[in-house]
């Protein structure tokens, strides 16, 4: 940084053709300006100015050096201006991995608003229910549900991950409404299957301490959260889903919640991104937009 400061002094002296005038413009003393240029000349091993009692003139090497320094300082000023503009209005490509249900049900319908708010961002959404390697996949960020295990990632917490049990009105009319968790053993149950392991996700149910785990049938199983919602909506059984996934159906009545007293929270919705301080402007912009969107749905 000392070299850059000396270059700035050198350019000012060259343009003012005077150490005194350059020093006034820079807010330093003429002696400090002279010493700065002298140290620069010593480091470069050549004289940059011919000094007389009334003014200074660039030497031939000084002229060549001045021309290059001006280009460098112009580039630096442009870089600072670009960065300042980016801070005010993020620009560039933004690649984010999101769970499929979040992309299809929330983000894609809201993209016109996102584009209007951040016209300089080119958004790349990867819709994937897998837990992706944010750093290895060279992602800018990822939305995750549940508990976080990677402590190296930067993170921003949103709303809790709240689960509900639900079924279609037609199914409940035909099979009856379960009144206890034990009643679920006599119902068709729609389960979620993890693609990576093939394991069926356990249902999160609030019970009395010490109560035995209820038997939950595996009548149907899907490796896609949206498929679970659609199967429940089609009357195929009782499903446990993240409440956020089924808000439209719960509001229009095509799905009805059951066993509300056993509703639980497990984990949360997070935005994670590779270690960076401060938070990249484009990641912050996406996080702010997602926060507003979730707030509207609350």
Structure notes:
- The protein is of the alpha/beta class and about 300 residues long.
- It has three domains: about 1-90, Arc Repressor Mutant, subunit A, CATH 1.10.10.10; about 95-160 and about 270-295, D-Maltodextrin-Binding Protein, domain 2; about 165-205 and about 215-245, Periplasmic binding protein-like II (D-Maltodextrin-Binding Protein, domain 2, 3-Layer(aba) Sandwich), CATH 3.40.190.10.
- It has nine helices and eleven strands.
- It has helices spanning about 1-15, 20-25, 30-45, 60-90, 100-115, 170-175, 225-235, 245-250, 280-295; strands spanning about 50, 55-60, 90-100, 120-125, 140-145, 155-165, 190, 220, 240, 255-260, 265-275.
- The strands form two sheets. Strands 3, 4, 5, 6, 7, 8, 9, 10 and 11 form a nine-stranded mixed β-sheet that branches. Strands 1-2 form a two-stranded antiparallel ribbon.
- A hairpin with a 4-residue loop joins strand 1 and strand 2.
- Helix 2 crosses helix 3 (about 30-45) and helix 5 (about 100-115) crosses helix 9 (about 280-295).
- The radius of gyration is 32 Å and the shape is rod-shaped.
Concise account of the structure shown:
The protein has 298 residues and is of the alpha/beta class. The chain has helices at 2-16, 19-26, 30-44, 60-88, 100-117, 169-175, 225-233, 247-252, 281-297, and strands at residues 49-51, 56-58, 92-98, 121-127, 141-146, 154-167, 189-192, 220-222, 238-242, 256-258, 264-273. Helix 5 packs across helix 9 (281-297).
